Each structure stands twice: as structure tokens, then as C-alpha cells.
């Protein structure tokens, strides 16, 4: 097995049934994030600091990784000093942290709808870096599949759901006209580049290190906790670390933590392209839960996106 296939001595890929279950669970958790977050709202506002939710999510990932590692009961896990194995994950944490902050700053230079549509360009940047950094080649059929996947995301973001009864409060920028500034376009391209780079770099790192996934997660989320703790402390005064949390908020944190661990397994045993399909397919779960829990209305654009995703999966993983 080579690097791209996840060839790790003594660490095999999960069985097909477990692999399919992991993909379905990750897709479901990705899609459930936005609807669950909407259920946390009180009077149209999220009552807790987003940075505190992210910090709790990283802490939960770290704790689960530590428990998983201790359960393995392996007295010797590395042949080189642990800091040499851990240090490369600092770059992964830095890239993910930079991207999360870029999302916030991008809203200043474009309207939310434009961002939702154009952010799907990260599918192309991830595929390009996947080919360049991992020395992989995509066939014309696979490239077309990723193009359809990009179109599906843009289609759903543009008009996949409607709120005809006005049950949800409009976002602060609801009346903002469609626009994007030159600086916004530049930052968006940087966002897509960093998104692809963080995904491909983490995949390469996890596959090249002959270490248990739980230990690699321990390294990654240790840096993640440190970075997000700094962001929380540097964010200035605001609600406390647990202030405003509810059962729904706890479910958001737990689901995102579990999804992070599942995605690590997908990156180690699958690929960055697999991750793209999981994230894109999650819009189906997002739409169904939004319709069921938030009483939003599915539009023709959603069904078009659903068709495009089905075609993309068939082209990339199936035959003609």
C-alpha cells in the first residue's frame, strides 16, 4: 500500500461495513450542525460565544483521543522523540485556525449569499493540491464529478431552502445587496487555498507517520486547544465559557467532536477527496433536518443539487 492508500504497518483500513457506517455518520453530523445551531437560538440570537463552543469541541476531541489511546495499552508508541512526531501537527492546527478566522473576516467584504456560493471553489483548490502534493492524477470523469459537486454546493447555497412563513429571524445582513469587493475576492481565494492545503497536508501527515490514529489526534487537538484557548482569551469580554449553554448546545459540541474524530479516520484511511464528498453530501441531511425541525421549504434548487451529487458520486466512484 502506498501513502495515498493509507498504508500504515499494523493499522489496516476499516472493514467495508464499518467504513460505510463512518461515512454515513460523518455526513449526518456535518449536515445536522446548522439545524442544531438554529435550535440553540433564543430570541433569534445564539446565547453563547462561538469561540467557547469551538474550544469545548476541541477539548472534547482531546479527551476522547486520550481515552482511546489509553484503551490501546501500548507501552511504546514511537521510536523518535514525541515532540518530533507532534510538531508537524502545529501547522495543521494553524491552517485550520487561520481558515476559521478568515470566514469571519470575509463577511466584511461580501454578502453572505455570495460567500456561500463562491466558497464552493475550495473543492477545486483541494483537488488541485491533492494532485500536486500527493502526486495523484484525476481522470476526466473524476474531474467532471468534482465540477458537478461544486455546482451542487453553489446551487443549494443560492436557493436550496426557503422560509415562506418567516419562522426564522432574518440574519443581520439579510437586506445586503449581492456584492464582493476586490479585497474580498482575494481573501476568498486565500480561504479556498488554505482550506485545500490544510486538508491535503493533514492527510499526508497522518498517512506518513506510522502511529496510531488516536495518538495523532492527541497531537492535533492539543495544538487545537491551545490555539482556540488563545482566541477565546484574546476575544475580549463576553459571555463566560459555559454561559448560555443548553442541551442543544451540548449536542452541537458533542456531535462536532465526534465528527472531527470520524473525519480524522477518513483522512487517514480515505483521502481529501472522500472528505469533499462527505461535506458536499451533508447538504442533503441539512435540508431534510431544516425542513423537519425548522419548517423550511425545499425548493427545486435542492432537488437539482441532489441530482448533481448523485451524478458526481457515480462518475467518481462508479462506472459509466
TrEMBL record:
Keyword Membrane listed: yes
GO CC, any one term: Golgi membrane
Main location: Golgi
Pfam family, one: Nuc_sug_transp
Record-annotated membrane-spanning stretches: 19-40, 143-161, 181-201, 213-233, 245-264, 276-294, 300-317
Similarity section: Belongs to the nucleotide-sugar transporter family. SLC35A subfamily.
Protein's name according to its UniProt entry: Probable UDP-sugar transporter protein SLC35A4
